[in-house]
Structure to design on (278 residues):
């Protein structure tokens, strides 16, 4: 295929939120269907482009756009908070608006320009019922029967949060994959380790299902904030320091708002030769 600029191949954008990086493919005007095989090839940082998540932008009759997400292993994901913020910023700049609505499997998400280069997204109400997260059996989601006494939270995807003395001391490369595949989580889980570093201020590290260690995660940040409130560790407005920087979470009556910076790094084209190998 040839785009309007005369390039052959498939156009894409590379973006990141606090180092949590994405490939974004805009299909609002058509183009090849993105498959699991294409997502997996694209996610290879040596033979593809590389990303933590792939986001596909589709047209939607009732929203400004519809977003579809894939993890780096090609598996689908219902939501991706930082990618949603990045795409919201991109679309707001494109349209000249400061508010818009994006549809994901999580539902309709309100997005706003928060000023000073920051973008704010309402990730919806947290899920705390065991069956909806989901867990494999009826369990108290505030105190899971897993060593370390973690909390389970759903943000459209499942999360398992451990509050520890020192998140830096955790062997995340070992603990992360073990916990991602814990039998209590039939759809696997994102895993976070966090500790309190000040009033309403948490340090958090994350292992994302289907991807691995990432510098940041928006939905994980929302889940950690919700878990901290439920445990009585913080108030409803929390700063979370990730490996990639700070993100700001506000658990309000209408949902969990996430605010942080975004970056559009570059745009490019996948060659036809690459696409033929998928």
């Amino acid at each position: 295929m040839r785009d309007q600029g005369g390039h052959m191949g498939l156009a894409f954008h590379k973006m990141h939120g606090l180092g949590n990086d994405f490939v974004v493919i805009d299909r609002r005007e058509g183009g090849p269907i993105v498959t699991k095989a294409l997502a997996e090839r694209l996610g290879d940082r040596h033979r593809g482009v590389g990303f933590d998540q792939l986001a596909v932008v589709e047209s939607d009759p009732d929203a400004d756009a519809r977003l579809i997400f894939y993890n780096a292993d090609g598996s689908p994901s219902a939501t991706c908070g930082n990618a949603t913020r990045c795409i919201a910023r991109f679309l707001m700049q494109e349209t000249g608006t400061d508010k818009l609505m994006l549809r994901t499997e999580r539902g309709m998400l309100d997005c706003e320009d928060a000023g000073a280069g920051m973008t704010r997204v309402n990730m919806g109400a947290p899920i705390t019922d065991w069956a909806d997260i989901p867990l494999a059996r009826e369990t108290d989601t505030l105190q899971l029967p897993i060593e370390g006494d973690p909390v389970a939270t759903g943000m459209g995807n499942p999360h398992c949060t451990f509050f520890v003395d020192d998140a830096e001391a955790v062997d995340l490369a070992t603990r992360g994959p073990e916990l991602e595949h814990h039998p209590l989580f039939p759809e696997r889980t994102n895993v976070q380790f966090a500790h309190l570093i000040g009033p309403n201020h948490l340090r958090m590290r994350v292992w994302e299902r289907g991807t691995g260690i990432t510098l940041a995660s928006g939905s994980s940040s929302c889940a950690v904030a919700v878990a901290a409130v439920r445990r009585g560790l913080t108030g409803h407005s929390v700063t979370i320091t990730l490996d990639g920087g700070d993100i700001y979470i506000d658990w309000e009556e209408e949902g969990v708002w996430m605010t942080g910076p975004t970056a559009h790094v570059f745009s490019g084209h996948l060659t036809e030769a690459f696409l033929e190998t998928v």
Summary: The first helix runs from residue 36 to 43. The chain has five helices and 17 strands. The CA atoms of residues 197 and 203 lie 6 Å apart.
